[in-house]
């Protein structure tokens, strides 16, 4: 199977509709409740994914044979590490959680990222990618640095120290990503190609490979991924 469970992605966010008769206070309260329900659903999905991960034949991605299993494991590992801090934040902030997490998006599990947050993070990533591509690398630096910045493999913190990233760090992450993408490419082809992927998975796969996805139609992303493969 090419597609991991839908529970590895954020659930739908259903916000209340404001009418002329709706008071500002009532609208804000209902909006806060909608966000809180969204976060609770996201946490429940992580629990569901935990049960699914327990059913995997291995927790070593190199021993898994199906793309769906590998993506499930990787996304679960990303999310489960963030649950303790994010859960505490929800308990303390309640309906105000959306305002707080905008300042510290890295602590939010993927299943709990609201669409606006996902879009803003992606925009920043694509802006950073553009700066990297215009930085005269690899003429004045390494290919590993260019790819690491373009794919967001290194923290933006390092951008403050010039064009070149620490070689050992950038080279290691560069090679890991190249190896991962090569394996993922093969798994997609073996699972039926791009047509076997759901639209959301095509978007995520394109993002992993350095394609811009903001405001890009699904059919264009599908063709980009076909050309890549």
From TrEMBL:
Principal location: mitochondrion
UniProt keyword terms in alphabetical order: Membrane, Mitochondrion, Mitochondrion inner membrane, Transmembrane, Transmembrane helix
Residues spanning the membrane: 85-108
Residues annotated as domain Letm1 RBD: 62-229
Mitochondrion as UniProt keyword: yes
GO biological process: intracellular monoatomic cation homeostasis
Gene Ontology MF: a single term: ribosome binding
Lineage: superkingdom: Eukaryota
Entry membrane topology: Single-pass membrane protein
InterPro entries per the UniProt record, alphabetical: LETM1-like_RBD (IPR033122), LETM1/MDM38-like (IPR044202)
Location relative to the cell: Mitochondrion inner membrane
An example Gene Ontology CC term for this record: mitochondrial inner membrane
UniProt name for this protein: Letm1 RBD domain-containing protein
Species whose genome carries this gene: Podospora didyma
């Amino acid at each position: 199977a090419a597609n991991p469970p839908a529970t590895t992605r954020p659930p739908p966010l259903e916000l209340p509709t404001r009418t002329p008769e709706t008071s500002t206070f009532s609208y804000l309260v209902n909006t806060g409740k909608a966000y809180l329900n969204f976060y609770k659903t996201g946490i429940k999905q992580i629990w569901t994914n935990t049960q699914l991960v327990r059913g995997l034949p291995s927790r070593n991605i190199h021993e898994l044979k199906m793309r769906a299993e590998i993506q499930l494991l990787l996304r679960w590992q990303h999310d489960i590490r963030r649950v303790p801090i994010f859960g505490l934040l929800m308990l303390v902030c309640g309906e105000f959680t959306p305002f707080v997490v905008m300042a510290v998006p890295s602590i939010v599990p993927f299943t709990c990222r609201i669409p606006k947050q996902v879009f803003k993070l992606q925009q920043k990533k694509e802006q950073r990618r553009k700066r990297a591509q215009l930085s005269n690398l690899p003429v004045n630096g390494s290919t590993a640095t260019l790819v690491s910045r373009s794919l967001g493999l290194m923290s933006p913190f390092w951008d403050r120290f010039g064009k070149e990233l620490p070689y050992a760090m950038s080279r290691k992450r560069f090679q890991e990503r190249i190896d991962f993408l090569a394996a993922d490419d093969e798994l997609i082809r073996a699972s039926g190609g791009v047509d076997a992927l759901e639209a959301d998975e095509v978007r995520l796969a394109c993002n992993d490979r350095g394609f811009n996805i903001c405001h890009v139609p699904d059919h264009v992303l599908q063709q980009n991924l076909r050309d890549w493969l």
